[in-house]
Specification:
Oligomer: single chain
Largest sheet: 6 strands, antiparallel
CATH architecture: Roll
CATH superfamily: Electron Transport, Fmn-binding Protein, Chain A
Shape: globular
Strand order of the largest sheet: 1-10-7-6-2-3
Structural class: alpha+beta
Radius of gyration: 17 Å
Amino acid sequence: MDLDVSFAYTHGMDRETVVERLESTPDGVLALADGDDAYAVPVFHHYADGSLYFRLGESPDSRKAAFVETTATATYVVYEAEPTADPDGQTGWSVLARGPIREVPEDDPAYDAVEINERFEPIRVFDESLDELDLTLYELRIEELAGRSN
């Protein structure tokens, strides 16, 4: 082992702190998979009742939608890292949520447009025509939830 490598010891966060991080942090990274091919995308989320909700903009050739369909277990990561007075140090935390992900049907009560707009940051659009963009709501039902901090 190279003894010149810097380490930061971390500890587990209690469930209340993990949930507070999900409730107070609006964004993270959603990781999806198709066999041995992975895809991760930064998204905004809303946490409620043990589930994470994502409002995604999808075009007809959406890579996100294709990967959601092939993902048995999705992983969502929320984190923060800040430098400290020590140039080699930093302080931070991370939360990982894992579980199945599904499209929420439009007749589901979670699909209320007014509430969705209140729960999420404005959707980011990159080089897509708004006429070709569909907004889709997804739910990741959390089966595994863990957080660490230092």
